[in-house]
Amino acid sequence: MTGSHLILRPATAQEVYYVHELNAAAWAGALDVETYHDREQTLASTPLTRNGGLSTWVLVDPADDPHKILSSCETTKKQALISTPRINGDTVSTVRQVTAHGVGSVFTPEEHRGKGYAGTMLQLLAESLKRGNADGFSVLYSDIGKKFYARFGWQPHQSSHLEFPAIEEGTVTGIKFLRSNDVPALCVKDIAAVKEKLSRPPLDLRTKVAFVPDYQTFEWHWSREEFVAPVLRKHIDIKPAAKGAITADGKRWMIWNRDFGKTATQLYIIRYVNLSRSLEETKEEKQIANLFLAAGREAHRWGLQKVIMWNPDEICIRAARRVAGSTVQVVDRESDSIASLMMHQPKQGSSPQDVEWIANEKFAWA
Ligand SMILES: CC(C)(COP(=O)(O)OP(=O)(O)OC[C@H]1O[C@@H](n2cnc3c(N)ncnc32)[C@H](O)[C@@H]1OP(=O)(O)O)[C@@H](O)C(=O)NCCC(=O)NCCS
Predict the structure, then answer these.
(1) Which residue numbers delimit the LYC1 C-terminal domain (predicted)?
(2) Which of 71, 129, 166, 232 could be disulfide-bonded to 300 (CB atoms 3.0-4.6 Å)?
């Protein structure tokens, strides 16, 4: 039975290990359990997650067995920005840097399911996040539709993507592949542009939020592909060194991450930046198409089935069609990876009517 006597507390190191043992069936993918443990340890020791960046939480019943895990989840701290419109004669936006939390790996062992444990855990977690980080917000990516997490405050936001199959043929031109050491300087430009976007005089009275697209966030994503590639792609005698592509004029780029899943394998474009819309539209499309071709060819090189980009704008959809024609699909997801957001100040509201989530892309996923 669930109830107010249950507590949510940080997991011990031993419990973290046990939680992975429990949830391996859901998330180990093509890895065996031992390798999954190692991957999770690797992901927990990046600059983003070490030293308290990542926390594992367990719901237990102190009155029964305080070591029996009824439900568990993780939170990752990330840098984010909030801009709130103010109207005093002029309409201006004030941008604040805050901490945001990504909630992930929500899991109830099979024998305890359907008893309200995940619900109780999320309620306690929401209260704790609001208390400890009152000025911030949190997000999670629901794989069980739009309703369950909304009950506890995480409201569904735009969750669409474009996808197309890996591209077998074609010469990549007009771009340069990015190495990880090219990316810090690009992050500086990207972050400045995101801040500028949030500080513009608002067109409406919605709060705007964005995760900071910083280098340590990309490093966390890459640590997964770098761990998994040598295990699952032994026959490819190279490292996943190309981390994205940039157009020759340096104004548009994509950063990507390879996902070697058990059944579906894909190259995710985790961040897309366009610092200039000054080109004539067809030229613009051609430049972005060059980036998509680079992504499609890279997916093929790594034996991945497709390329996926979250929440693409219209010009990206047209550009993708230039290289992949009618194989491009645009999907509004209804059940998996539903980007869901909760402002920790309840009066701000959390739905898309109240909050505009800028740069709602895969890099923010945890
Ligand atoms: C999802 C999960 C955490 C729910 O845990 P739980 O302790 O059983 O949850 P609660 O008892 O608090 O709530 C149950 C409710 O969850 C929702 N739910 C559970 N699984 C669902 C699914 N696959 N699709 C939609 N809703 C689902 C339903 O609203 C359900 O209510 P119902 O039993 O009246 O239909 C658990 O089923 C699990 O660990 N699944 C495998 C891992 C997973 O998918 N995690 C979620 C990742 S976003």
Answers:
(1) 161-365
(2) 166
pLDDT band at 2 (very low <50, low <70, confident <90, very high): low
Provide DSSP, 41-64.
Answer: HHHTTSTTTTTTTEEEEEEE-TTS
Same domain, 25 and 82: yes
Could you give the angle at which helices 33-43 and 215-232 cross, rounded to 10 degrees? 160
- 212-249: pLDDT as tens digits: 999 999 999 999 999 999 999 888 878 899 999 999 99
Q: Is the pLDDT of residue 335 over 70?
A: yes
If 0-12 CB within 10 Å is exposed, 13-18 middle and 19+ buried, where does residue 108 land? buried
Q: Which atom of ligand 1 is nearest to the CA of 117?
A: 7
User: Is residue 228 domain-resident?
Assistant: yes
Residue nearest to atom 30 of ligand 1 (CA): 114
The enclosing domain of 44 has a CATH number of: 3.40.630.30
pLDDT in tens, 150-159: 999 999 999 9
User: Does one domain contain both 358 and 310?
Assistant: no
Domain that holds residue 11: 7-159+335-364
Nearest residue CA, atom 24 of ligand 1?
A: 144
Helices (H), the chain: 13-27, 33-43, 117-132, 183-199, 215-232, 281-301, 314-324
**Residue 195 pLDDT level (bands cut at 50, 70, 90):** very high
Separation between Cα atoms, residue 82 and residue 95, nearest integer Å: 6
Q: Report the number of distinct structural domains present in the chain.
A: 2
